[in-house]
Each structure stands twice: as C-alpha cells, then as structure tokens.
Specification:
By secondary structure, the protein is an alpha/beta fold. Strands 2, 3, 4, 5, 6, 7 and 8 form a 7-stranded mixed sheet that branches. A 3-stranded antiparallel sheet has the order 1-10-9, with helices on one face. β2, α2 and β3 form a beta-alpha-beta unit. α1 crosses α2. The radius of gyration is 16 Å and the shape is globular. The termini are close together.
Amino acid sequence: MNVARTLIGRDEIAKRAAAMGAQITADLKRHSHGEEHPRVVLMPILTGALVFTADLIRHIPVQMSIRPVTISSYPGTATTSQGANIHGAVPTDLKGAHVLIVDDILDSGRTLGLLRRVIAAQRPASLQIAVLLNKNKPGGRSEEVEVEYSGFEIEDEFVVGYGLDFDGYFRNLPDIGVLAPS
C-alpha cells in the first residue's frame, strides 16, 4: 500500500489547529461562566487523535487534564468502520467538568456517538467534540453526531498520515494523504 496523493499538507494542518485552539479556548472561557478554576478535561481518542491532540493543546492555554480513551472501529486492514468498541476504562468522574473529546476523523459516527452518550450520562458542565477531519458521507452516517469543532471537510476516501493509519502504518506521515487502492 502507498499514498496516492497528499490531501492536506502539514502547514495547512498547523494553521487550522491553531485556529481551532483559539476558538476552543474562547468557548471554554465562555462556558465556564467566570469560574475561577474550571475543571477542563480533554479526552483524546487513541491512537488516531494522538498527533492532532499534541498540536491542538499547544493552542489551548487553559489548565486541563488529559484523559485518553481507546476505542477501535477499524481493526486490522478494514477500510470501513466495523462498529465502535471501547477498550479500557472511560473516566467516571466527569460530573460538572467541561469535557472536550478530540478525534482524528468523523466517519460513520459510531465512535463519537458512543463516547458522547457515555460521557453525557455523567452530566458534565459542557461536552464538546473536536475532530480534525469530517468525512462527507453521501449516503449519510450510521449515526449522526453533533461536532462543535471541525478542522477540514473531506470526501469519502480512506486517508492516512498525521495519526491516521491503515493496519497500524502511516500514522507518522506529516501530511494527510489518500491511500492508493491495492
């Protein structure tokens, strides 16, 4: 497998991460209604959101804890979602916190829908989702999910790089590219 073409370059990603971080910071301050020390919990979905989260948090200068969760939906060489499965524990102390879920891509909606429901049941003060990529699904998603922050809208192609993988590979590429058909 190879990358057929670059879809989004590293400089464009860096600019968008900075802009998203500024917007998230402003919104967190607004949602906290002047709380002196609001409890902000950033929840990246591993492993795909790792690279994006590292860049994004550099642009969110607020005190926060980072509580990663592991959810899989593309096992092995699958290029379509196989359903979301939570691996490990989801934090259970989120009542009253301002929670921001960070993911690499909104595709079928199953992963983010599942996590949003699990966290919402804990009654956080606010719950928002940030995704780097929002995939345009012509036939619709398996589950519609509200996403407050979206980096880029992309067509329905299988992409890799900047944390996104195929069978565990390509995550380390600095740009986002379209995977070549085998």
